[in-house]
Automatic annotation (TrEMBL):
InterPro entries: NA-bd_OB-fold, NERD. Pfam families: NERD. Residues 195-301 form the NERD domain. It comes from Periweissella fabalis. This is NERD domain-containing protein.
Length: 411
């Protein structure tokens, strides 16, 4: 005859002292019955298990129990009652893992797509839109942590996995891989946000002084033999009577909580506190080479003195939060000094670098050389990302409720 009860206590076997290896089951009629772990028909036996057990007497007429199997039927019944009391239901659909897709698109389109999803998230949850990725990343962390807690409740864990409330092992791996992608997207998105904001500040300054410019052009990149080997994206090319200037906007320190000191060495190395060393000078040198490569090869500009077509690099820091220490010969200025930097040579010589007709010709040549909407690979949330994230959070809430109520489920 089989009885039902709950494992109340286990004393593991101590190999050094040769003691332990037994436990006690609390029966339905409230008896505490001794059993040997080695006699159990299933392993591992854990405290809190609801079990079916048989009984027998030893030679001294002491009652012993023998756990035959977990009493899952009672556990299932208790679990269903608990879900009903909490207003929850299990799901036949597998637990969703929000998806990220590699998409070939241009930077503007990538920024707008992610920004639109963030705005929807902000409206749905009454939070700042920019918190979307970090919030969903936190939801995943909570789900993974809770799943690990259930490692001590193996029977209940198995039941919740079957009911698609907790993730399976493969889904846990997918969620952890997703966190890596989310952190990457979050980093890139913050960079795009502050980068776009910085460019907007610089653009307003250029328009204030009625300067002609090309924003975010993508020009062909040449090797040492003059062959096109790729493309390079530039923040701004300013073409005016003051000459041709290539602007690289670095919105370092845009987050006011991150005061930084920017030091540029004589050889062009950029060093920031809390950041790896960068050679931004080399980056803009590629931009200069791309611009001059287009201009020097243009038949329409052969009558213009090549010296006039030389491009001048200017680095713009569009905020006041960074202390700039510049030991190089490069122009590194804040937005307020940008115009003075562009015009200083002309003011000194009192002679325009480019005439009006030359400005128009240069603009035409550069615009014709543009690789319109050049696409790069971006990792972006797929169309079901938000829906799946919300469902993942809902099932986490169910699992957390079950974990909090587990004592009543085991009774």
């Amino acid at each position: 005859m089989e009885f039902h009860g709950k494992v109340r206590e286990i004393v593991p076997y101590d190999h050094r002292r040769h003691t332990g290896g037994y436990g006690f089951i609390q029966s339905e009629d409230n008896q505490s019955i001794f059993f040997l772990l080695s006699w159990a028909n299933y392993q591992p036996v854990q405290v809190g298990d609801l079990v079916e057990f048989e009984t027998e007497y030893d030679e001294n007429q002491r009652l012993h129990a023998n756990p035959v199997a977990r009493d899952e039927s009672k556990l299932v019944k208790n679990l269903k009652q608990c879900l009903e009391q909490g207003g929850y239901k299990s799901s036949r659909k597998k637990l969703p893992v929000p998806g990220v897709t590699a998409i070939n698109t241009n930077m503007t389109a990538a920024y707008e797509a992610l920004n639109a999803m963030q705005n929807k998230f902000g409206i749905d949850n009454d939070v700042q839109p920019a918190s979307m990725l970090s919030t969903i990343n936190e939801w995943i962390s909570l789900t993974v942590e809770l799943s690990n807690k259930f490692e001590d409740e193996t029977t209940l864990q198995s039941m919740l996995i079957k009911r698609n409330i907790l993730p399976k092992r493969k889904q846990l791996e997918e969620l952890q891989n997703l966190q890596v992608m989310i952190r990457k997207m979050n980093y890139e998105q913050r960079g795009r946000y502050y980068g776009v904001r910085g460019e907007q500040i610089v653009q307003a300054k250029l328009e204030q002084h009625h300067l002609q410019y090309i924003k975010n052009p993508t020009l062909p990149e040449f090797d040492t033999n003059g062959n096109v080997v790729g493309a390079t994206e530039i923040d701004f090319i300013v073409i005016s009577m003051f000459g041709i200037h290539v602007l690289e906007v670095k919105n370092y320190g845009a987050n006011k909580n991150q005061d930084q000191r920017l030091t540029i060495s004589k050889d062009g190395q950029w060093n920031r506190i809390g950041a790896t060393q960068e050679n931004v000078t080399n980056q803009n040198d590629l931009h200069i080479a791309a611009v001059e490569g287009v201009l020097f090869d243009a038949p329409e500009l052969k009558k213009i003195n090549p010296v006039k077509l030389l491009a001048t690099p200017v680095f713009v820091i569009p905020n006041e939060n960074v202390e700039i220490v510049n030991h190089s010969a490069e122009y590194v200025v804040r937005t307020g000094l940008l115009y003075d930097t562009l015009v200083q040579d002309v003011r000194r010589a009192r002679q325009a670098v480019l005439e009006k007709a030359e400005i128009e010709k240069v603009m035409t040549v550069l615009k014709s050389a543009l690789e319109e909407n050049r696409e790069f690979q971006y990792f972006l949330p797929n169309s079901e990302f938000l829906t799946d994230a919300y469902e993942l959070k809902r099932r986490y809430n169910i699992a957390q409720y079950i974990y909090d109520q587990r004592e009543s489920i085991y009774q």
